[in-house]
Amino acid sequence: MAARGRAPVLCLLLVSFFILLYLRSHPLVPQKDNERHQEMVRKEQQELFSKEVSEYSENVLKPRQEEKLKKLEERFYRMTGQTWKLTEGHALGPGTEDQQDDSTGVNNCVETANEEAIRKRKLPECVTKPLPQCEQPQPKRVIVLPDEPSESEEDVVTIALRCPSGRVYRRRFYKSFNSLVLLDWMMKIGYHSVFYTICTPIPRCPLELKENATLENIGITGHTVLNIEEKDTL
């Protein structure tokens, strides 16, 4: 096939060679006509060569590449145990699918309740065992501080809370409020009670905040300044 395709090229080259010899032996031919003829010959040669390359690629290279890919695919399926993909499927004939459905229904009817129970008992434990229920996450506690009383009311104290950053927060509380309200206030402004505690400035002493103790019980009877300090992790 390739030899037959190269024959016209050789013939054309020979014709071009003789034409050039003729033109050289006849100087009476104008130079422009000679150049124009040479350009036409080059174009014809290029077109013929491109056509030959295209035919060679379509008839030789492409089939070789397809055959190589097919062999690689077959090798891959054999190595992975998927040889069934190499076989051609068989189309179902008329009525084959209906017959299969009918036979399946008959087999299902034949299976009794006892047989089904025995089959279920033989299933692996991982299949029959019910899946454990996921533990529901506990709802996040929302901190809500009590309403701030008026400064003119009785039994009201103003507490200044100094943060490690140097910022100071002030708020009014009733003396009868639970002492744990100070922890809620501290967490509300961004300091968790796991890592921080509330201390008196002088002397430096952590407050004993209890659920059954009021602010007055822990010694807060007037305007007070308290510090938020990091807990000692040692």
TrEMBL record:
Residue span, UBX domain: 152-228
The keyword Signal is annotated on this UniProt entry: yes
GO terms (BP aspect): ERAD pathway
SUPFAM superfamilies: Ubiquitin-like (SSF54236)
Signal peptide region: 1-25
Matching InterPro entries: Ubiquitin-like_domsf (IPR029071), UBX_dom (IPR001012), UBX_domain-protein (IPR050730), UBXN8 (IPR017247)
Pfam families named among the record's database cross-references: UBX (PF00789)
A molecular function (GO) term: ubiquitin binding
This protein's UniProt keywords: Signal
PROSITE patterns per the UniProt record, alphabetical: UBX
Keyword match Transmembrane: no
Name of the protein: UBX domain-containing protein
Organism: Engystomops pustulosus (Tungara frog)
